[in-house]
Amino acid sequence: MNAQIAMLCSGKGGTGKSTVAVLLGAQLAARGQKVLLVELDSGLRSVDIIAGVYGRTVYDIEDVLCGRCAGEKAVVESPLYRGLSVISAPYEGGDIRPGPLRALLAAMRPYFDCILLDTAAGMGAPFCAAAAVSERALLVLTPDPVALRDGRIVADRLIADGMPAGRLRLVVNRAARDRFGPRAAVADLDECIDTVGAQLLAVIPESPALQQAAATGAALPPGCPAALAGAALAARFCGERVGLRFPF
Ligand SMILES: Nc1ncnc2c1ncn2[C@@H]1O[C@H](COP(=O)(O)OP(=O)(O)O)[C@@H](O)[C@H]1O
Ligand SMILES: [Mg+2]
Hints:
By secondary structure, this protein is of the alpha/beta class. The protein contains nine helices and eight strands.
């Protein structure tokens, strides 16, 4: 194995990066891939709960990057999604630097098919470190003008720093019919694509099931609209030509 490395990012906070990272990781794992999800959002961690590893984590990414433990000691398998493993972010502090992150990923790559880096909002240290080591990027944005405008800034920055534009994809999260149209702040998906300037990879619906699963650390019910959208996201991430599943 020689894992491909992809980052999830956004300009605005709370767009659903961590939720979509676990959804994508779980669905890639359901396709038979071995997936490692690394949360880089120090202080605002949530992947441990969403992936069900809360309380099972002894070491976190900060311990690994500071050399306090070997990378494999911080890897925890999700009890909810077979094939998905997680390295959690610390509860506070921690400096995500590209050099140690690169070394960790080099050590982990042979054991996984895909490594997902869940970054913090904006273009701080986690974003910069992830951008330095990722082969592709998913911009996870909600359909609102601020998220889209900030997404464009992040996209431009990634491209200016050397990521080929074709390696950048847009995931529109929390989509619902009433979030688009003449009376909504965003007209349609084309406006999302044009504002951000990246090809659309997937549309994930506004989903009470996803929110409930994330909040309680339970598995997402298979077959619910968000799970189906997640399966389409994973298939398209793998290069398959499947439909977007939108409108829902
Ligand atoms: N598709 C969705 N439907 C409903 N709620 C969502 C969806 N995506 C994310 N959320 C909720 O939005 C909040 C922020 O999500 P999170 O993944 O933590 O964002 P980020 O990692 O970008 O900060 C959480 O409460 C999460 O449950
Ligand atoms: Mg997050």
